[in-house]
Amino acid sequence: MRIDILTLFPEMFAPVLGASILKRAADPALYEKAAGELTLEPHGAPVAYHLTDIRAYTTDKHGKVDDRPFGGGPGMVMQCQPVWDAVQAVEKLDPRKARRIVLSPQGRRLDQPLVEELAGQPRLLLIAGHYEGFDQRAIDALEPLEVSIGDYVLSGGELAAMVLTDAVVRLIPGVLGDERSAHHESFSAGAQGLLDYPHYTRPAVWQGRTVPEVLLSGDHARIEAWRKEQARHRTELRRPDLLPPPEPA
Ligand code: 9D3
User: Fold this and answer.
1) Does ligand 1 have an atom closer than 6 angstroms to the CB of 153?
2) What CATH class has 2-169?
3) How far is 153 from 207, CA to CA, in rounded Å?
4) 102 in helix, strand or coil?
5) Which residues pair with 29 in a beta bridge?
6) 101 C-alpha to center of ligand 1: Å?
7) Ligand 1 within 6 A of 242 CB?
8) To which H or E segment does residue 185 belong?
9) Which whole number is the average pLDDT over 33-60?
């Protein structure tokens, strides 16, 4: 998958795309043996990131990309021209049709089903805004999917673009070292399911706190039943909204 990110702050992305799973996903050295079984980008990794500074496309001689809102009010609005021209230029860099996504507080709330749908696309083009947002005519012309990551106020769309990228990239075949990790969660915890059960590791006693006896028993049927019970109990307490609705009487 190719992921294009259009932003006024490309430098915000380097530390996030350059660490851990997101870094590995774009590293061709890790996929030399897997070629043939996986869909790889031209450089030989499952994912290619391409960052674009929207300011590079402004025709304003002072590099301006925003202006005051018509009708008055606080803040600044991102102008149509730089965003539109940046999208046109970037889309030409690859023949694949990009799924255009604008990160916006007005967007569809990101959830695991949407993440899964996006993970199946060959190319995403993420547009992150800053200031009060985009001139509505840019949205109307681009016809993007608008996506929000939740009901709280961020100072821009950049962190939202990184959250979406992280959630999507870990689902792309070949990216997670242990294929069970992503698969497992659709059956137990995670999306549409239950919260996770509690985890423990060594030492067996820490500051006088012990590990539940069942986990040391070696009885895998009992362990599985205990974990299911814990997951259900936690979900009832913390996230009853995730449970299937009770049968009507
Ligand atoms: C007049 C109210 N404005 C400021 C409080 C609205 C506003 C404009 C721009 C609020 C936030 C932002 C910047 N946020 C995003 O671009 C954003 C976002 C978010 O704030 N929350 C959750 N998901 C997202 S996706 C993009």
Assistant:
1) yes
2) alpha beta
3) 40
4) strand
5) none
6) 15
7) no
8) helix 179-187
9) 96
Give residue 154 CA to ligand 1 midpoint distance, Å: 5
Cα–Cα nearest to 194, from 146, 248, 234? 234
C-beta of 105 in contact with ligand 1 (< 6 A): yes
> Predicted confidence band at 183 (pLDDT cuts at 50, 70, 90)?
low
When the pLDDT of each residue in the chain is averaged and rounded to a whole number, the result is: 94
Residue 246 pLDDT: 84
Q: Which of the two residues, 12 and 182, has the higher pLDDT score?
A: 12
For the stretch 25-37, pLDDT in tens is 999 999 999 888 9
Q: How far apart are the first and last CA of the chain?
A: 48
With a cut of 50, say whether residue 189 has pLDDT above it: no
Class of domain 186-242: mainly alpha
pLDDT at position 187 over 50: no
Q: Whose CA is nearest to atom 7 of ligand 1?
A: 132
Q: What's the gap in Å between 81 CA and the centre of ligand 1? A: 21
Whole-model pTM: value is 0.95
Could you tell me the two tokens for 121?
């696309």
**Sign of the dihedral through C-alpha 82, 84, 85, 90:** positive
Task: Please compute the mean of the pLDDT values over residues 103-131 and round it to a whole number.
Answer: 97
Beta-carbon count within 10 A of 235 CB: 18
Pocket test for ligand 1, best of 106, 126, 132 (most atoms within 8 A of CB): 132
Three-state DSSP at 67 gives strand
Task: Spell out the domain ranges in the chain.
Answer: 2-169, 186-242
Cβ burial of 1 (10 Å; 0-12, 13-18, 19+) is: buried
